[in-house]
Amino acid sequence: MKWSIGKQIILGKVISISVLIIISVIAGITVHDLKASFVRHDRAGLRLEAAHEFLSLVQDLETGQRGFLITNDESYLQPFNDAKARLEGVQTRLVTLTEDTAARKQIVNSLVDLVAAKQRELEKSIRLNRQQGFEAAKAVVVQNTGKELMDKIRAAVAALQAQTEDEFSTLQSLVKHRTNFLFATVWFGMPAAALVMLGIGVFTSWLITAPLRKMIAAAESISEGDLSVPVPELGRTDEVGALSRAFQRMLHFLNDTASASQRIAAGDLTVAIKPRSAHDQFGQAQAGMVAQLSRLIQQVQRSGIQVNSSSVQIAAASRQQHSTAAEVAATTTEVGATAREMSTNAQALLKSADQVSAVTKETATLASNGKSGLNRMESIMRQIVDASTDVTAKFGVMDEKAGNINVVITTINKVADQTNLLSLNAAIEAEKAGEYGRGFAVVAAEIRRLADQTASATLDIESMVKEMVAAVSTGVAGMDRFTAEVQRGTQEVGQVSRQLDEVIEQVQSLAPNIMVVNDGMRSQSQGAQQISDALIQLTEAARQTADAARDSTSAAEQLNEATHALQDLIAKFKLPKG
Predict the structure, then answer these.
(1) Which residues contact 414 (CB under 8 A, 6 or more apart)?
(2) Average of per-residue pLDDT across 505-514
(3) At how many degrees (to 10) do helices 438-570 and 281-433 cross?
């Protein structure tokens, strides 16, 4: 079976988890037993408590019976009756708590029978005391049957208590033992589990790191160029073995690559280099290098042949250049005379260009001044438009206020009409009142007179407001026409300004062109002089060209010899066929 590192790690984890599970199971069982012991302890305590309560109720029965026999007073039977009422419930609880063992069950059954007999004996004496008197009841009591039953009841309760105390002792010993076992399991088991897990971890780490250190040492040797280093851990069947075999394949690939590189360095370009895969970038690059180098050598061979042919042609051209230089020297004399005539014409054109340039600058200055005046005029007209807009807005506000005044006037008219009506009603009532209402009638007449005056005044105000609204409307219409005229004038001024801008732009664009012509004339004059000077230099250069032609012939012969030497060197390379 092949145990990989992953399987070994999983096995270590399984062992560690198994140890923890075993410790947890042991601790769980112990805790469960402790819990059961605590339940038994609580049950025994409840059983002992029920037995004592059972005995106490029997004693209450006996106490009530004695009090009734001595006093013949029914109130003394209250403890008897209370105990009798509770006795059945305590008896049932005691029987339930003693069903776990046969011995305790037998004791409790015997105790129940004794208590029943005791209860019958007490009830008999009470019944005789009621029917036949104290002496008859006393005769039953002195038979000592009740005392014997009570002694047996106490003995049964004592036996049950003794068994319960023995059970307490046993449970305490058991709890102590299991508690110690639980502490021992936790205190010793957990460190043991930790040691086991630590040992497994160390062992697993050693299984991984020990071979990896060997692999790292081999990789460092390979990185330093030592391709003869042996690859360790080849016989392993886990991941480390797979890594070692991959290292070995890489080492073989590097050795093959080094061998091919040595052959290429020796000039053998026939070596076949095939990439190991589509991802073999080094192999692809080396194969590409060999192919490129082969093509380069072939191109150098062809270029050597071409250079050899060119050197022969250069020698012939040098001889021809020598004869041409003599012809150039004769031609330069004729060109010199023509250049001097061109220089004279260029100076005359230069003066005319200077005059045109001065006139153009003056025209541009006048146009710029006119542009500034138009800009100021346009600004003033825009201010007039803004002011007329504000006046129109103010007229609108006045129109709105006049409307508000009309509303107020309407309200005043309504109030005057109501006042007039009320004064009329008051006058009628005053007339009805006779002598007593005469003073009130005078006041009503005065109020009616004031109301009439108010109505008349509001009519005058309304007429004035209407005239003001009409005047405002006329003013608004006039301002609108004025604003429209000013805006149209502003647009015309802007159009004139734009046309003047175009004139200025054309004049300004003309000035650089004139300057260019001026500069061209000046350059032509200077060029003619330079041509004359250059022709002198050209004559000297023609003589130097003849000398250089002789040198070129000598250099072409040397180039031919170097080409033959290069072809001899290239012949040493082995190129692939085809």
Answers:
(1) none
(2) 67
(3) 170
Q: Name the strand (E) or helix (H) holding 261.
A: helix 239-265
Residue 328, pLDDT score? 59
Mean pLDDT score, 109-130 = 89
**Domains along the sequence of the chain with CATH:** 5-209 (1.20.120.1730), 313-533 (1.10.287.950)
Q: How far apart are CA 412 and CA 414, in angstroms?
A: 5
Alpha-carbon distances, residue 216 vs 222, 229, 243 (angstroms): 10, 12, 11
d(CA 27, CA 99): 30
Question: What would the two tokens of residue 577 be?
Answer: 């066929």
Percent of residues, the chain, with pLDDT higher than 70? 72
Cα distances from 496 to residues 130, 360, 463, 502, 546, in angstroms, run 149, 21, 49, 10, 71
pTM over the 0.70 mark: no
For residue 66, with 0-12 CB atoms within 10 Å meaning exposed, 13-18 middle and 19 or more buried, which class applies?
Answer: middle
Cα atoms found within 13 Å of the Cα of residue 151, Cβ hemisphere only: 5
Of the candidates 41, 44, 80, 37, the one whose C-alpha atom is nearest the C-alpha of residue 60 is 80
What residues form DSSP beta bridges with 192? none
Segment among 18-27, 236-245, 351-360, 387-396 with least mean pLDDT: 351-360
- Comparing CA positions, the residue from 115, 117, 101, 120 lying closest to residue 156 is 115
